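Board notes (copied after class):
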Amino acid sequence: DLWFFSDLWDFLAARGGSFESLMRQHGGHWALWTAITVRAVARVAGMSFFPWYVLPEALLYGAYSVVIWRVLRWRGASRLVSSMPMLLIALLGTSAWSQNVTYIALVLVHLAVVGLAVLMTDTSPRWPQFVGAGTLLLVAVAAEGTGVAVLAAFALTALVARRYAWIAATAVPVAAYGWWWFAYGRDTPAGLSPNL
């Protein structure tokens, strides 16, 4: 039975269900959502039927493709043009390339980027938009390492576009990531390679 890959073994065998084990870094990244998802699937479905581990990712890819379609339609694209990226994302989500539940983090970061792009169309944001942007940025940085790049790109975009008020939305995600990094991110668990 070689259903599970090395990434999944870190979440299945090398971690317990404690808060500390969920917060522990994975290859130098904060992988909170993947840790929670894998532990939840293992608890509910066990380890004898691998497709249960693909289901959360398949559902997320489905949601992602629909969100892309809706955003493109909202921005004025035709149904045909909107359908092309939607179908491509759906195809990638069901391909052999994407057979590891750890890719769930990548899709979460993509969804955060799309949400942030939609939110930043408002030139005079109000409190709900700040909360939405901060939440999306927090989801991105807790998902994987590229979330930090999304956070930096968001702040840089706000600076370049002279939308300085949007920078306030980065405060909580920056503080949360800093807390995680100093509390858990710098440590490599005993017996594990930092590049597992």
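Comment from the instructor: The radius of gyration is 18 Å. The chain has a mean pLDDT of 81.
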